[in-house]
Write a structure and sequence with these properties.
Elements lengths: L7 H20 L3 H11 L5 H12 L5 H26 L10
Helix pairs in contact: 1-2, 1-3, 3-4
Length: 99
């Protein structure tokens, strides 16, 4: 299945920007590079409204509430996992950068 309005390329591009931003932050050795990585990674946040729109567009009307119900908690779960993972990486070094 695909969306009717061609938004798939925007979702893929923003998710790839988010991945690249996370890699930049991971490899950063200064706060300036980490901020730049966060800026690049923040483009992934623009894909969230598109996932709701595409889900509502491609599914029949009777399945749309279930689809919306599964999209929102999955995004929330991803945020929780990312927060705890980031905390685990910075547990031993509060600055998060190698000394």
């Amino acid at each position: 299945m695909t969306d009717y309005w061609g938004r798939k390329c925007f979702v893929i591009a923003t998710i790839l920007c988010g991945t690249a931003g996370c890699i930049v932050v991971y490899r950063s050795e200064s706060i300036g590079v980490a901020i730049a990585g966060q800026v690049i990674g923040s483009f992934a946040g623009t894909a969230q409204p598109l996932t709701h729109a595409i889900t509502s567009e491609i599914l029949p009307r009777r399945y749309r509430p279930w689809a919306q119900t599964t999209v929102s908690p999955s995004v929330a779960l991803a945020g929780i996992v990312a927060t705890y993972t980031g905390g685990a990486f910075c547990k031993h070094d509060p600055c998060g950068f190698p000394t």
